Amino acid sequence: MATVAIYNIDKKQVGEKELADAVFNTDVKPHLLHDMVRYQLAARRQGTAACKTRSQVAGGGKKPYRQKGTGNARQGTVRAPHFVGGGVAFGPQQRSYKFKLNSKVKKSALCSALSSRFQGEKLTVLDAIGMEKISTRDFSSVIKRFELEGALVVIDKPDTVVELSARNLKNVKVLRADGVNVYDVLKYPNLVLTEAAVAVIEGALEQ
Asked: Using one digit for the tens of pLDDT, what is the confidence trace for 99-111?
């Protein structure tokens, strides 16, 4: 099994931990990462752009002029697309951009993303992130101590002190273990996990 060092927030090694190979040391499959990122970004799209068609534009109930004898082409309504103020032909309509992805693909993609961070030596495991008070400065000093230029920090359970301390830091994001995802793992160059968060992730992905 893969082994990783465990540090405290003062960057002193306090132990080692074996990681599940099926989660943190599996083959990295770029095509699954690509599919999963597309899936996540598509689900975020609002899809609210819309135009009114000729049936939705107000007015135009009366025939603008008689059928014959005017020398003009026959018209039934001034709300047709070729009239100013008329409806839009083939304009965008509200839609969902979501598409289906099998649960096995999602799980395998997340394992690939986590493995890419471990194999690239971009994974740091902490015994805990114990902060007594909300302090952006203190949290920033922890990140700088480990010389991390941008990091996704994953904790095992809700921690208001940690989450609020990191909220205003650039290129740093705190996630709970049950919300870890492929897009955020790949977006940030470094991955920081608490020891408890590792257990939660392995328990979810080894099933």
From this structure: 999 999 999 999 9
* Rounded to 5°, angle at Cα 28 from 25 and 34: 140
3-class DSSP state of 122: coil
CA-based R_g, the chain, Å: 27
What residues contact residue 25 under an 8 Å CB cut-off, 6+ apart?
1, 2, 19, 115, 118, 119
Mean pLDDT, range 46-71, rounded to an integer: 94
Residues 85 and 106 grouped into a single domain: no
Task: Return the residue matching tokens 């830091």.
Answer: 169
Average pLDDT over residues 10-17: 91
How many domains, the chain?
A: 2
Integer angstrom CA distances of residue 188 from 15, 26, 82, 170, 182: 25, 20, 50, 11, 10
Q: Which residues contact 168 (CB under 8 A, 6 or more apart)?
A: 136
Q: What's the pTM value of the predicted model, to 2 decimals?
A: 0.84
**Cβ distance 146 to 5 under 8 Å?**
no
Beta strands in 30-69 (DSSP E): none
CATH number assigned to the domain comprising residue 201: 3.40.1370.10
3-class SS at 36?
A: helix
| Single residue among 60, 78, 96 that ends a domain in this structure | 96
User: What phi-psi label fits residue 134: left (phi over 0), alpha (psi between -120 and 50 degrees) or beta?
Assistant: beta
Half-sphere exposure of 136 (CA within 13 A, CB side): 8
